[in-house]
Amino acid sequence: MSKVIKQHLNKPRQMMISLSKGYELTDYVRDQLIQMLTPRYKLGFMALDMDVTYHQLWRFMRGEKMSEVFINKAFRFLLNSHGELLED
Prior knowledge:
The chain has 88 residues and is mainly α. It has five helices and no strands. The relative contact order is 0.15.
């Protein structure tokens, strides 16, 4: 791994999200994921990229409660899609 990438990985990352009253982080993640969907980039492809099952992602997109593990994967995917480089 190059020195530049190592330096980037060691920098603290932050993201500021302003949520209005009654709007939760899961709502924000869901809305952002919906915006990423296109006629070519469908839910199945997103599920593969997130390392979750299609059915889990389908239930989340319909507003069902999901586990903390799923929410963490979804948020990590969202951050990675916005140009952040996160490792497990």
